[in-house]
Design a protein that fits this description.
Strand content: 5-15%
Largest sheet: 6 strands, parallel
Bound molecules: farnesyl diphosphate
CATH architecture of one domain: 3-Layer(aba) Sandwich
Strand order of the largest sheet: 3-4-2-1-5-6
Length: about 300
């Protein structure tokens, strides 16, 4: 059975906000100024680790009849903006999923362009990272990246290794299943090295396994943002996202601005994280922060 629904007319405000891309809450909050959103943000309830699947560069370009690379170029501007605002508000760790292991199946020209963009970004931004106390880390199967990029990554990691204000992790040649397999192999190798005939068979627990992941020592993400409307996690942080709050927005990555990031943080602050436990009693009109969305 097909049902037709009358489409509500879009006013100039909705059009300006891109009503098809922003949901009702995003629209309502989106009219607020950045200063209002910042005031509404409870600095004591920030997610410590935010992970982002930056999706929609290609579609952003296609919407404008531009080559895909233009979407990636504008995507870099969004990366700069989000790194800046995350550092300003006090996010401890920001992970950006930039290039998946599956992305190697893209046309060679696009891969080459992405590597060039990454190279330019790292060369340009390393000074900004040091100046702003940002430590850079790359995770993924880096051995499959072009050797000059691997060298550059190592250099940026070294140059920023003493920075403590925020950690910026970029997932490159990354796959969640590959990471789990790599961790299992790492464990097997270390056991085989130490094992002597007659020793009891060693057992593995979650803590030990976590340490063997690329993110060993980094806390799990509290919030995961995915842009461009796809409702899936695409082989990202399969282990780490067991209790992560998920936030999906239709906004394409190149259009994801400071305010969009703040909206995601505010949405997070309106959730109750239970980690499998029972709910704390709260008034039904209020979210876990004790604040209604109307108060924002
Ligand atoms: C997703 O859009 C985006 C990517 C696969 C690449 C993102 C990479 C960058 C912005 C450059 C390097 C990053 C950093 C952190 C310096 P898509 O191409 O999958 O878009 P589509 O799904 O609309 O085709």
């Amino acid at each position: 059975m097909t049902q037709t629904h009358a489409q509500p007319e879009r006013g100039p405000l909705e059009q300006a906000l891109g009503a098809q891309e922003r949901g009702p809450l995003e629209q309502a909050l989106g009219v607020q100024t950045e200063a209002t959103l910042l005031t509404a943000l409870d600095r004591s309830q920030l997610p410590k680790h935010v992970a982002i699947i930056m999706d929609g560069n290609g579609r952003w370009a296609a919407d404008r009849h531009l080559p895909r690379i233009m979407g990636h170029h504008r995507g870099i501007d969004a990366v700069r903006e989000v790194v800046t605002v995350a550092r300003e508000v006090g996010i401890e760790t920001l992970t950006l999923y930039a290039f998946s292991y599956e992305n190697w199946r893209r046309p060679a020209t696009e891969i080459g362009q992405l590597m060039l963009l990454l190279e330019t970004y790292l060369k340009k931004e390393v000074r900004m990272m040091v100046k702003n106390g940002i430590r850079f880390l790359a995770i993924g199967r880096r051995e499959s990246l072009p050797p000059p990029i691997v060298k550059l990554i190592r250099r940026v990691e070294e140059m920023t290794s003493r920075q403590k204000e925020m950690t910026l992790i970029v997932a490159l040649s990354y796959g969640g299943r590959a990471e789990i397999v790599d961790a299992a192999n790492k464990l097997v190798q270390s056991v085989v090295k130490k094992y002597r005939a007659g020793d009891p068979v060693p057992t593995v627990d979650e803590a030990l396994f976590s340490v063997c992941l690329y993110t060993g020592g980094v806390r799990d993400p509290d919030l995961m943002i995915r842009t461009s409307g796809e409702l899936r996690i695409s082989n990202f942080f399969l282990w780490q996202m067991a209790y992560t709050e998920l936030y999906f927005t239709k906004v394409r990555w190149p259009d994801f601005k400071r305010k969009d990031f703040l909206l995601a943080l505010l949405d997070y602050q309106d959730r109750e994280r239970r980690f499998g436990l029972v709910s704390k009693p709260t008034s039904s009109a209020h979210g876990p922060t004790g604040r209604t969305k109307k108060q924002i």
